Amino acid sequence: MRITGEFALKKSALLILMAWLCLACTAQAAQLNKIAAVVNGQVITMFDLQKAALPELGRARLNPNDPKQADKVNVVFRKVLDSMIMDILLEQEAKRLSITASDSEIDQELTKMMKMRRLNRAQFEAELKKQGMSVDELRKTLKTNMLRQRVMGAEVGRRVVVTDDEIRAYYEKHKDTLYDRNGLHMGLIVYNPNVNARSIAAQIASGSLSFEEAARKYSIAPNREKGGDMGPVEWGRLNPEWEGRLNKMKPGDVTEIFTVQGHKAQVHLFRPGQTGPGRPMTFEEARPVIDNILRQPKAMERFDEYSQQLRNRAVIDIRL
Do 183 and 148 fall into the same domain? Predict the structure, then answer.
């Protein structure tokens, strides 16, 4: 009887523990299924929000389950939610304007990414997995970016004007820093989260460590064995963010640290086999470069105005 009694007690305790676990799982599921926002009838769940916020939370070293960090976590959530709302508004606007991004176009972008990194499909998927991303998620991100750029081109870009006088004035002021861009390569370091990126960047800036050596030692990008070389810059295919960054650089320049996909990174613009900046551009060669440089801040100002117009017309219910 004693053994039977002990067994009964243990069984009872186990049942109670299982019940508590079920309640905890149910509460967690309810929290994840909770609606964070509704944008013109389209729902964003807390699960969607938390997943999208993971890179930002990781970079800030915040734990969403730590009550002591709740205020800081909420700031990140609201920032990410704002971006998600804008993505939805732009997707809805793309649909209204009959702007699309086809599967074949996304396939082409994926193929380009694999070629640039010199990876086959399996290697590429393995690299994505290391970053906590699937191919389907990357395809969705690429489609969102394509639609965003096309809506911006249709509704923002065509309304931005850069005059010949502005281009000429910029050239006269900066012609000593505008160099031939043919054959220029882009080097990229995506720093391992476990290294001191700022210390390494300081060594690169001082010349005590070359960019190529730093890439081989500390980068987690697939091109690290090639010293970070991403190959020739395809100027006509750059998205606005990278175009704005690279257009401000001259051959030999290395950027300050910036963030890409939640990781600290640096870019090096260089011409293989050449240490100097190269031949200065003529005015006609520099014209499209200067046009892009001057167009970017105007486009961003116009985009901010356009974004606010979309928000004003939308029905947005935030429930955080």
Answer: no
Which residue ranges in the chain fall short of pLDDT 50? 1-17, 19-30
CB neighbours of 20 closer than 8 A, spacing ≥ 6? Answer: none
Give the containing element (helix H, strand E) for 258.
strand 258-260
The length of the chain in residues reads 320
- Residue 189 lies in domain: 179-271
Question: In this predicted structure, what is the pLDDT of residue 236?
Answer: 74
- Residue 31: per-residue pLDDT: 54
- Residue 256, in any domain of the structure: yes
C-beta atoms surrounding 164 within 10 Å: 9
Per-residue pLDDT at 116: 67
Note every long-range contact of 118-123, with CB atoms under 8 Å and residues 24 or more positions apart, other chains counting: 118/222, 118/223, 118/226, 119/222, 123/222
Last residue of a domain, one of 90, 125, 159: 159
Q: How many angstroms separate the Cα of 59 from the Cα of each of 53, 56, 71, 73, 76? A: 10, 5, 16, 12, 11
Q: Which amino acid is at 130?
A: K
What is residue 257's DSSP assignment? P
Query: Domain total for the chain?
Result: 2
